[in-house]
Amino acid sequence: MGEITIVGGGFAGVEAAWAAAQRGVRVKLVEMRPVSSTAVHKTGDLAELVCSNSFKSNLLTNASGVLKEEMRMLGSLVLPIAARHSVPAGEALAVDREPFAREVTAAVEACDLITIERREVTSLPEDRPLIIATGPLTGAALAAEIAQLTGAESLSFFDAVAPTVTAESLDMSRIFRASRRGRGNDLSVAAPDDVAQGCSAPQLDNADYLNCPFEKEEYLAFWQALCDAEKAPVHGEEDSGAKMVFFEMCVPVEELARRGPRTLAFGPMKPIGLEDPRTGRRPYAVVQLRQENREGTLWGLVGFQTRLKWGEQSRVLRMIPGLQHAEFVRYGVIHRNTYVNSPRVLLPGCGLREAEGVFLAGQITGVEGYLESAATGIVAGINAARLVQGQEAVVPPVNTVLGSLCRYLVDTDARHFSPMNSNWGIVPELETPIKDKREKARLKSERALQEMRQWSASLGA
Fold first, then answer.
1. Do 193 and 328 belong to one domain?
2. Minimal CA–CA distance to 333: which of 360, 310, 356?
3. Mean pLDDT: which of 142-151, 175-184, 307-316 is highest?
């Protein structure tokens, strides 16, 4: 029986390897770290998190929550491990990043059908089937080969990362605990019990976030400081052809600030659903902190991706109430992110149109987010395994979140293609129109999970 070669050991690569191995196919997984690293990776572990530690909502009225359930049905590797290393994050699934990546690495290393090779790939292997899962930091030489293989120019955008601070350095006299509208990790508002099988996030109280409240004058001074702060140069920005384009959900906070004095107050600093218990009223604006590790010693600034110089971050972010003495264990950074124009080159099952036996997976396809990347890895792994076994490629049903995401990659107007994450907007509407958004989400969720359950059963997953 043949062997699949996978280039890249991030979320997409490990899920692709796991999906193929679970179907009895041998895999060679090639990962360059720790032989060669990047500006944002710190370890040699597979599936290392370099941005937020959040995998977004667990709620089954949310497309991200439904995508997780669909992935569990397909035998996801990372989600059970994420559940074991989860940290409080309201309704979201967030993980303690280092032990999470260590366990993912150990699981892959322990699989008899997966061989890991630690070396950098600078030219595409001739092996087939081949899965390219090199992620958003694909090297220039390999990116050029991918562009040549696809017959289309690779596009790029720049992804920004938020800072992390220590809990002991926070002034809790200026900070209050609360989740918006009192929503914690209670999944009772999700879909019925038969749909919610597999949800294993801990049941926590409704105060999983730390909130730093601003008065109007404090906010305006902070906004002005962000606008005036000095930005760091970005590696690759000066390269010919590199275009400074941000995925809208990852726009640096200082770029948002420059759009106007109230942009932040209606964006990542919106106070909606929050009441300061010390004043009994809603703040003018807030900065929320999300727990980064299980011990609660590290907290990340929610929505505060930034490309400011580190000295400027230290100065400006300490203007946030409660952060005046903050100790930064990780400053915000920004890095180049490369993806192909998938509607021009990709098939719905993640195979390349003009290169039989070659698949793409992860952010290089134009999906955005850890779980979206991992999910496309599962699809690529399944179809590469089916190719080895002499079977045709398959695609998840269009009414599922994963199926809709796969189809977005190939059905979108190629002239306006941009990265996408899981959301109800890409999932087909119900046959009977529903005005109530919550009821519509519930019915879409039930339909998606029923169809995924049937589809995964047909695959023997």
1. yes
2. 310
3. 307-316
